[in-house]
């Protein structure tokens, strides 16, 4: 048996049915957590819940909808008795040059990225306070830090998430609620689609990684999220952690 660093904790993982989110869900359960997975994809959600058994409840819904955030928190408390960890992983965007991005493109990036993160944090806050020892892990992106072309709305949403996370880290520290950000780089189905649409950008990104490859969601990214969620990271808050093979070095 691996380490049980999340034993007894209950988590919400948005977008937890596939990609990095499903890797996080699987590792959290392996390390002893119970997880409410919130995802749009009904079939993938049911599959991961069936795979992981009683430790996972799947809630089908759109993270942009505030009522879904409330329902996820209520589900965690009803089914598992508390909420200790919130992972805001889901987000979607469309890639095109800034001047071609429509209001609808901006709404998609902001609603699924920034506003979903805000709404889940606010919905979770009363329960996180009750635990006296909670962790929020939000997702940023190297695209925001680097100003990746074709990612204007996405980069703006992701950098706004980092700003929000730093404020919340300060405001919620008295409740011992830690708030950190992970910026991953991992070869998921979403990235594979992007690689297909923009092969030159993909090749350039992969070549710029000092460790020489796109990360593996299970082995390279999920363990960093699990660390931030665990008490091993009890003295870390307000940080951005790059899970990207060294592509970006924060100062
Ligand atoms: N994969 C990377 O290299 C990379 C790089 C930088 C940042 N990120 C960030 O990491 C996170 C995960 O990325 P990924 O590559 O695993 O993404 P992905 O597209 O593979 O998976 C996202 C998951 O979220 C779900 N989802 C999408 N929109 C939703 C909505 N409105 N409501 C509920 N669920 C929804 C999807 O069904 C899917 O299960 C995202 O925040 C992404 O921006 C990823």
UniProtKB/TrEMBL annotation:
It holds the Pfam family adh_short_C2. SUPFAM superfamilies: NAD(P)-binding Rossmann-fold domains. Residues 9-188 form the Ketoreductase domain. The keyword Oxidoreductase applies. CDD domains: SDR_c. InterPro entries: KR_dom (IPR057326), NAD(P)-bd_dom_sf (IPR036291), Sc_DH/Rdtase_CS (IPR020904), SDR_fam (IPR002347). PROSITE patterns: ADH_SHORT. It comes from the Bacteria. GO terms for molecular function: oxidoreductase activity. Keywords: NAD, Oxidoreductase. Its EC number is 1.1.1.-. It is an enzyme of class 1 (oxidoreductase). Belongs to the short-chain dehydrogenases/reductases (SDR) family. This is SDR family NAD(P)-dependent oxidoreductase.
């Amino acid at each position: 048996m691996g380490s049980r660093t999340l034993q007894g904790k209950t988590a919400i993982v948005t977008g937890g049915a596939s990609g990095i989110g499903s890797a996080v869900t699987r590792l959290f359960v392996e390390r002893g957590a119970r997880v409410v997975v919130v995802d749009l994809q009904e079939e993938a959600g049911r599959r991961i819940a069936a795979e992981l058994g009683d430790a996972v409840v799947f809630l089908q819904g759109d993270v942009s909808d505030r009522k879904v955030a409330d329902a996820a928190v209520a589900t965690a408390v009803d089914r598992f008795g508390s909420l200790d960890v919130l992972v805001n992983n889901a987000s979607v965007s469309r890639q095109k040059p800034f001047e071609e991005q429509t209001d609808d493109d901006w709404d998609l990036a902001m609603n699924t990225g920034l506003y979903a993160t805000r709404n889940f944090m606010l919905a979770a806050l009363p329960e996180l306070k009750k635990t006296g020892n909670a962790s929020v892990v939000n997702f940023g992106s190297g695209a925001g830090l680097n100003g990746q072309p074709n990612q204007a709305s996405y980069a703006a949403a992701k950098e706004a998430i980092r700003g929000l996370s730093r404020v919340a880290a300060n405001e919620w520290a008295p409740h011992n609620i830690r708030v950190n950000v992970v910026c991953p780089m991992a070869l998921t189905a979403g990235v594979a689609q992007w690689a297909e649409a923009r092969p030159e950008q993909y090749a350039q990104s992969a070549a710029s990684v000092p460790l020489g490859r796109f990360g593996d969601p299970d082995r390279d990214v999920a363990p960093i999220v699990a660390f931030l969620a665990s008490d091993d990271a009890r003295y870390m808050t307000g940080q951005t952690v790059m899970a990207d093979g060294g592509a970006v070095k924060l100062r």
